[in-house]
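Hi there. Long-time user, first ticket. I'm pasting a complex I've been working with (about 690 residues overall). I'd like to know whether the download I got is complete or cut off, because the file seemed smaller than I expected. Thanks.
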Amino acid sequence: MAAESPEAPDGRRLAVMEDVAAMAGVSAMTVSRVLNAPEKVRPQTRARVMAAVRALDYRPNSAARVLATGRSGVLGVVSFDTTLYGPASTVFSIEQAAREHDYTVSIVSLSSLNRRSIGEGVERLRGQSVDGIMVVAPHESAADGLKELPADTPLVAVGAGADVPFPVVAVDHRAGAERAVRHLLSLGHESVLHLAGPADWVDASGRTDGWRAALEAAGRSAPVPPAGDWSARSGYEYGRQIAADPEVTAVFAANDAMALGLLRALREAGREVPGDVSVVGFDDVPEAAYFPPPLTTVRQNFGEVGRRAFDLLLDRIGGVSAERSRRVVEPELVVRESTGVPRGT
Amino acid sequence: MAAESPEAPDGRRLAVMEDVAAMAGVSAMTVSRVLNAPEKVRPQTRARVMAAVRALDYRPNSAARVLATGRSGVLGVVSFDTTLYGPASTVFSIEQAAREHDYTVSIVSLSSLNRRSIGEGVERLRGQSVDGIMVVAPHESAADGLKELPADTPLVAVGAGADVPFPVVAVDHRAGAERAVRHLLSLGHESVLHLAGPADWVDASGRTDGWRAALEAAGRSAPVPPAGDWSARSGYEYGRQIAADPEVTAVFAANDAMALGLLRALREAGREVPGDVSVVGFDDVPEAAYFPPPLTTVRQNFGEVGRRAFDLLLDRIGGVSAERSRRVVEPELVVRESTGVPRGT
DNA sequence: TCCCGGCTCGTTAGCGCAAACATTCGCGTG
DNA sequence: CACGCGAATGTTTGCGCTAACGAGCCGGGA
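Hi, the file is complete. Here it is re-exported in full:
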């Protein structure tokens, strides 16, 4: 025996399929069919069963269904710090897509990231019998964690780098950065400085690559850039370092928060934006249009990322082998008022 | 018969408890005990079982356990738009607290809120046999949705208003707003304008109440304030309206994003902050310290909210009846550079 | 010596559902 | 009017686990 019979909120025993069957005068199997394949049941019978379902406020026990079918209707998401704008938006859009297809989403939100934590997160979810897993962990080191997983786990890596043994959906950070830098060069800037994101982030390295590629394509040199930590504070500190240098006329910050700090440091130092220095960010957070001045930045379409990731995962669950496929979402340059022609041009 | 035997990633059948039992030379029941109540098994036997568990890479099937025990180890969270800073932070801290206690979190993220959507979200989760539910929906109308639920559902309403038939954990918006306004009055401001949040939000009405209470306590009048929509844009639009009025020396915006827009409008109109006008926000988003100028604001401790909500829910699941109890988390005024004595004082 | 109590482990019996197979029914056909 | 065939419904079985109880074994005390 097991399971102290759970009680309905009103104190009566929760109805099970057998109860519905009894009330409708059919077998439990017919009730099951009404719920899962209504077209196989005569309309008249179906109506009787549905009436009983409503009368008893019956709802199927998902655990029993999972046990019997092997499918749970739950997707797992392992994500790094969901208070950050990017991960939060991605997870949100995944959840929307999943809900539209009647999947529920279970989430594990990592506050620190290392090889072990990814594996633990995935394990936690597999322990809950999820049908498939998304990993939203835009870190280079996340790849190591993923490599230790069985390669045919139904898993999609969102925003992961190359060299991951799973299908990947990611924003083309490199192309976005190239667009940003080309925009600055086309305005007449001699060169463009770059404040990179944390070294371990795929997003950061992609943006740095794009910056470098655009500069080198234009025949400019691109030394190793300093790295911030995505925070406004790190942008501010970098800004203080470069504010005194009159040679600096354009800066590409790897995200909007750092750009905000940068703007502040430049203003404090008396350098005007975009008069003296042009600044470009990345993300297009909702506030970017109200930065001082409104920020030129690169918008990522997180909704698209979530939808594609979900579709891909659905394919994998359905058995479609899309190993190591990679889908790329193109970001878009949004020009506002923080960029302009350099003074004296 | 049922469930096409699921295969392990390496192609073999996934090990079940019986397999472990056979390898260890014990019964399945003993394996179960080793996993759930190790102290009831002789250390020597326990070691044999654990060895077999590792050898077969056995992991218990959660659906079967749920079916047998009636408990799932999953908590459901219904939240409004998790891309907003507040809800995202709250959900994040709930997930952290849950994970520490070996609970998994399933999430339903609502993009629009009405009486129906809350109920649907809760239904979805109940259909997944969650042990308990958190509703993070700081809307007045959410209360209506909650009232339609059976009152003894193990549910905790996070950030809900009064008059909800469930335990509530919430930030004391009113007290936070009072602190903000008293701070401005104590600097010598004759009065304080207020840009409220959307009418339907509990957070918004609480902050408005606090603003009014502080003003009236000081003998000032407090007319009905205009309401924004939390966005920087709405703060900007309000700022344009008031920028021309020299009587205005202090504004309390109901959140930081609106304060940002406000700051921008004031600057464009040539009014200095805090020289001409002082501004206070609410939230203390990570970027607030880098606004132009660094924003005086009210910090909410979302981590504390999440932890308390989780503890409360655990009590409810455990059968502790804490009906309609209300736990309040105190916010904290963070004074930065956007507030100062009014000019001419 | 025998008996009893405690510890360890096994046996039985479901939890609620759906897959596979069995059966019944209705109806058109020869 | 018997037959056959497909559609509608029923019966059986088992998914993997654990609650409840029962059996075996040991040692200590009468």
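A couple of notes from our side: Chain B is about 40% helix and 15% strand. Chain B touches chain A through 66 residues (CB under 8 Å).
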